[in-house]
């Protein structure tokens, strides 16, 4: 239907009129009159009150009353509004009785709706205006009648009960002020799903008590001005809880507790990188459980804390985290990506509200999650940002001084979404856990300056190191994936990287194709750190940005004769030059595609920490002491005690090959195995050679494949065939 839009001016108000002319289906039928709708666009405060009490408003402009009551605090106060309503009603006493009766009925309906939807507006400051309204209704004989919203006597009584509320009995705090602060590392004691439930319980209670009108940009955006500290208490409570959860994450990972505001008033618990990695993994599981509970507030609090500068710069701790945890962390970070104004989190929240709480069919946590209810807690920061942007983008008043009510309609659309989510939030069925609640209340989070100082003490920043990226991507070039992954026990197909996989038929067999593959794999991960590399954590740089591949300026360049190995997260110095100097690193037995470096897996007993495996790159220039030192460093041990350890190759048939201290590991090792053991030297070690169990087998080196000279000759011939 053709649409016509124009504006009309009337008694201090501007209306937008929309007219639609519909065509009849029968061309011979007469044309019906156009259908028009009129909405108030702007006006003076008195004109807005007249329109509010107009009996025709509820039918012609259905959203005006709700939008006016929800946003009136942005341009007036509740006492002033009640006074104008009383003025309007008193001015109608001289009008015809039927008009007065209609207006009084509308006033009763508006006041009833106002009290039901925004009871927080009626404080002690409106007592005088309520006296005026009560005297008016008694004077006009309307107190005992039944109007549109019920009798005025009951309404005034309900309003007075709201104005003079009884003092509620405050709950007894779980953590007393004199109690010692809680240990932030005790998060490992609690189950992740139980901790997520308690966080959701706290967040849901705060969100249900949230006053949507306090989120308006005109109020929240001016909260920091002098004299406005009392504004928006419900929003401040939600923000405080968000910051407390984020502070708990930072304090626990750093192992620090604040005892005061000063930089030195911090108690730090010594933790090793593997222990910090367990704390990182714990909080990632908590965030995942919050996602299953549809608690976007605590989930984003945990994710933002893990992305904060004091935490994401801890390279050693992130390097010890498991791949599964890092993959989950990456997916959670993508939810709150800032691209397109948080479009992913908005779409996900919309889907969660439309659908019933359902989890993945194969998830083991589905039954338990379903029993916890179907509520939802949004991240309030998204709505606060929208309202602040609306407040900044539109003027409060037009050039003629009229209140811009179109702006208030847009704000009401956001507030109504918050109210709808509050109704959804009532679907939780959770029970409080006093132990977890007491631990959460007893935490003493660090200040921003304290957390930065502790983080720098945990891992001292190097003077020439580049800024720590959020993704610690090793940069060693690897081409023969099938053999390499087989040597470290990983899966053969690599599907998690955003680049084509290398099939078995693509493994280079000659130096020329190999150099081609080197250029294609410059950003693939180092096999020397496959057991601890961060695969998919969100990075500060884009994946296409090669800046994280550049070597640090302070790192020494390798000699032109060979290339050194790269530890987890450390860029390979001169990676581009190394690719042009020789063939890539292979992980299999010597053959036509063999090279001068291999990947070995070294097991080391760490006492109470158990036994761990580390993948080490061994080149043709590495001797046993240097390999032992690198293994000790990767296990966070002092490399100065390398002489107290020996390197032993584990061969099939429960045999062992002890590598002498002066031997070249690359040439001394047996090609039948890539598994090694690092252990302390025995007081009386047997002669060097192959052994079966604790006693020497007596097998000649030539028979066992452990002799050095025949192996050197065979390897030399194979390398010559491969190169020439």
TrEMBL record:
Entry keyword set: Guanine-nucleotide releasing factor
Species of provenance: Muntiacus reevesi (Reeves' muntjac)
Example of a GO cellular component annotation carried by this entry: plasma membrane
Record text on subunit structure and interactions: Interacts with SAMD9.
Domain spans labelled Ras-GEF: 191-461
Protein name: Ral guanine nucleotide dissociation stimulator-like 2
PROSITE patterns (UniProt xref): RA (PS50200), RASGEF (PS00720), RASGEF_CAT (PS50009), RASGEF_NTER (PS50212)
UniProt xrefs under Gene3D superfamilies: Phosphatidylinositol 3-kinase Catalytic Subunit, Chain A, domain 1, Ras guanine-nucleotide exchange factors catalytic domain, Son of sevenless (SoS) protein Chain: S domain 1
GO biological process: Ras protein signal transduction
Domain N-terminal Ras-GEF: 36-160
Function: Probable guanine nucleotide exchange factor. Putative effector of Ras and/or Rap. Associates with the GTP-bound form of Rap 1A and H-Ras in vitro.
Database matches in InterPro entries: RA_dom, Ras-like_GEF, Ras-like_Gua-exchang_fac_N, Ras_G-nucl-exch_fac_CS, Ras_GEF_dom_sf, RASGEF_cat_dom, RASGEF_cat_dom_sf, Ubiquitin-like_domsf
Ranges of Low complexity composition bias in the record: 546-558, 692-702
Biased composition (Acidic residues): 1-12
Record SUPFAM superfamilies: Ras GEF, Ubiquitin-like
GO molecular function: guanyl-nucleotide exchange factor activity
Listed Gly residues bias regions: 575-591
Residue stretches making up the Ras-associating domain: 596-683
Region (Disordered): 1-38, 489-509, 529-592, 683-714
Record field: compositional bias (Polar residues): 529-540
């Amino acid at each position: 239907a053709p649409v016509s839009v124009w504006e009309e001016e009337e008694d201090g108000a501007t209306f937008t009129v929309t007219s639609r002319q519909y065509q009849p289906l029968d061309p011979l039928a007469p044309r019906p009159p156009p259908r028009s709708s009129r909405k108030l666009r702007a006006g003076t405060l008195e004109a807005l009150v007249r329109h509010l009490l107009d009996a025709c408003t509820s039918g012609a402009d259905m959203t005006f009353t709700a939008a006016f009551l929800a946003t009136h605090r942005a341009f007036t106060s509740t006492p002033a509004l009640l006074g104008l309503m009383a003025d309007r009603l008193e001015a109608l006493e001289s009008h015809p009785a039927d008009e007065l009766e209609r207006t009084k009925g509308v006033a009763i309906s508006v006041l009833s709706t106002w009290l039901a939807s925004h009871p927080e507006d009626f404080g002690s400051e409106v007592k005088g205006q309520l006296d005026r309204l009560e005297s008016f209704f008694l004077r006009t004989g309307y107190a005992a009648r039944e109007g549109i919203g019920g009798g005025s006597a009951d309404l005034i009584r309900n309003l007075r009960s709201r104005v003079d509320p009884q003092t509620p009995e405050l709950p007894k705090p779980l953590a007393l002020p004199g109690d010692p602060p809680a240990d932030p590392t005790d998060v490992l004691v609690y189950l992740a799903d139980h901790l997520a439930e308690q966080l959701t319980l706290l967040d849901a209670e705060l969100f249900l008590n949230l006053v949507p009108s306090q989120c308006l940009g005109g109020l929240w955006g001016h909260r920091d001005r002098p004299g406005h500290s009392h504004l928006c208490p419900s929003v401040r409570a939600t923000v405080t809880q968000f910051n407390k959860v984020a502070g708990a994450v930072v304090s626990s990972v750093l192992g620090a507790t604040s005892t005061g505001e000063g930089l030195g008033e911090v108690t730090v618990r010594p933790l090793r990188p593997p222990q910090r990695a367990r704390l990182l993994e714990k909080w990632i599981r908590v965030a995942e459980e919050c996602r299953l509970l549809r608690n976007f507030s605590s989930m984003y609090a945990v994710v933002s804390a893990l992305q904060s500068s004091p935490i994401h710069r801890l390279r050693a701790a992130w390097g010890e985290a498991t791949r599964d945890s890092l993959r989950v962390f990456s997916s959670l970070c993508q939810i709150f990506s800032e691209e397109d104004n948080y479009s992913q989190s908005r779409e996900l929240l919309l889907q969660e509200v439309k659908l019933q709480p359902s989890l993945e069919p194969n998830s083991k946590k589905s039954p338990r999650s379903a029993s916890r209810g179907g509520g939802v807690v949004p991240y309030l920061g998204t709505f606060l940002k929208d309202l602040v942007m609306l407040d900044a983008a539109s003027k409060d008043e037009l050039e003629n001084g009229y209140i811009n009510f179109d702006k208030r309609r847009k704000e009401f659309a956001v507030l109504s979404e918050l109210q709808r989510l509050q109704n959804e939030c009532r679907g939780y069925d959770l029970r409080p856990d006093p132990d977890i609640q007491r631990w959460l209340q007893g935490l003493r989070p660090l200040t921003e300056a304290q957390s930065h100082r502790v983080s720098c003490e945990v891992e001292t920043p190097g003077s020439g190191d580049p800024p720590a990226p959020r993704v610690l991507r090793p940069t060693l070039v690897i081409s023969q994936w099938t053999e390499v992954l087989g040597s470290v026990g990983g899966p053969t197909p690599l599907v998690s990287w955003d680049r084509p996989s290398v099939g078995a038929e693509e493994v280079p067999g000659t130096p020329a194709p190999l150099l081609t593959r080197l250029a294609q794999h410059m950003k693939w991960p180092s096999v020397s750190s496959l057991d601890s590399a961060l695969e998919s954590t969100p990075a500060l740089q884009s994946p296409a940005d090669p800046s994280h591949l550049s070597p640090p300026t302070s790192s020494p360049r390798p000699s032109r004769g060979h290339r050194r190995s790269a530890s987890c997260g450390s860029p390979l110095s001169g990676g581009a030059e190394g690719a042009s100097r020789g063939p890539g690193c292979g992980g299999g037995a010597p053959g036509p595609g063999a090279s001068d470096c291999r990947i070995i897996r070294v097991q080391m007993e760490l006492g109470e920490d158990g036994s761990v495996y580390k993948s080490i790159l061994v080149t043709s220039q590495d001797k046993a002491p240097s390999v032992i030192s690198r293994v000790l460093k990767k296990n966070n041990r002092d490399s100065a005690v390398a002489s107290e350890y020996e390197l032993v190759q584990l061969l099939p048939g429960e045999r062992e090959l002890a590598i002498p201290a002066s031997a070249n590991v690359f040439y001394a090792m047996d090609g039948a195995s890539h598994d090694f053991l690092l252990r302390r030297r025995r007081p009386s070690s047997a002669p060097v050679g192959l052994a079966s169990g604790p006693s020497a087998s007596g097998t000649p080196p030539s028979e066992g494949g452990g002799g050095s000279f025949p192996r050197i000759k065979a390897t030399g011939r194979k390398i010559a065939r491969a190169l020439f």
